[in-house]
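Hello,

Our lab assistant flagged a job as stuck in the queue for most of the afternoon. It eventually completed. Since we weren't sure the result was trustworthy after the delay, we are filing this so someone can double-check. Below is the sequence as submitted and the structure that was eventually returned. Let us know if re-running is recommended.
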Amino acid sequence: MAKKVSYEERAEALLEPIAAANGCEIYDIEYVKEGSERYLRAYIDKPDGVNITDCENVSRAFSEKLDEEDFIPDAYILEVSSPGLGRALKKDRHLEKSIGKEVEVKTYKLMEGKKEFIGILKSYDKDTITIEIENNSETEDMVFAKSDIAIIRLTLDF
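-- returned structure --
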């Protein structure tokens, strides 16, 4: 197992009781390198959304637990935040909660002459994602192979 995955899994196990004690759930955890810096990012959520106090309380407790366990040998920056309104849908549980909502799909390669699509998330399985798009005043289902999708996220509706 890659170090990144192992770090993310161990961090999630440490964060689970902390998030729950603060009335939150874990949306996602990622351990990434950006430039010369490494980041451990924890995204938390709750039905009415998280606020700065939620992030602060979870961050303090999580930081203490990470210091106790000390399983990441590299220096890193810890960030605890909301996944945001235009959140990426990375896991099946994210997709499940988003069925029927408007999403933006960006692909790695051109499909029907473009790389960006907006539609209603209809379904998904282990290999594909289906959205309903409007095309010339008619709707049609468009199926994407998960391997062709660079990112899928909720659209921002203002």
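-- support follow-up --
The delay was a queue issue, not a problem with the job. The result is valid. The helical segments are 3-21, 52-69, 92-98. The beta strands are 25-34, 37-45, 77-81, 102-111, 114-124, 128-135, 138-145, 149-154.
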